[in-house]
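Worked example 2:
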Amino acid sequence: MASRCATSFLLLICSMSLAAAQAVPSRVRVSEGVIQGLRVKQVSPIYPPLARQARIQGSVVLRVFISKTGDVENIQLVSGHPMLAPSAIEAVKQWKYQTYLLNGQPVEVETTVTVNFTLAENPPQGVVGDMPGGAAQSTVPAAPQHVGVAQRVRVSSGVESGLLKSKVNPTYPPDARDQRIQGVVLLKAIIDIEGNVANIELISGHPLLAPAAIDAVKQWKYKPFLLNQAPVEVETQIQVNFTLAGE
């Protein structure tokens, strides 16, 4: 009897441990660089007239809470000029993200967003990208009524892979196969507004494998990436794996 009780107790402990290991937290903290790759809608803030007249510029840093459906449900001001902060908050409230999945399940996200206000004579167009340290940035032109869509955005490989429509597998180079060469080829790819691979640059990979990877990826096709409902070019990274396992 004692042996049976001990066995039952151990099974109960194992079951509880397994359930705890598989449990998904209700909210996760995600870096700025990662979450900006999931942004599908961005509304640029309006430069406050009084701040413009006073030539006030600077960054507004916000702590943002995103729901399981990708909506911004709460914003807290971390830092920023009081004349700029309300405009930044009002704009970010309208941003929209793809659902963040953890172990295949949607979860809420806590992240940080930085909105930059500048009155430069010839400011650059709005860019969705990385600030030093990985924070997402939104550059606000001096004349917000003319704000356009960014010409190109940087998107994480995980997000862009979800838009892949057709994929051509590379042909294993005979010389590499004969020499039992395996490994990963890492590429930087530019994808145009129609979803075609417009340009490829080699980041790393064996010289016997890289040409086959590049030739295959050139033929890949993606769905257009939409920003503010308009298609934009995408810069992303692509990994191509070569393995001889099972041969």
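Residues 122-149 have pLDDT under 50 and may be disordered. The longest helix spans residues 2-22.
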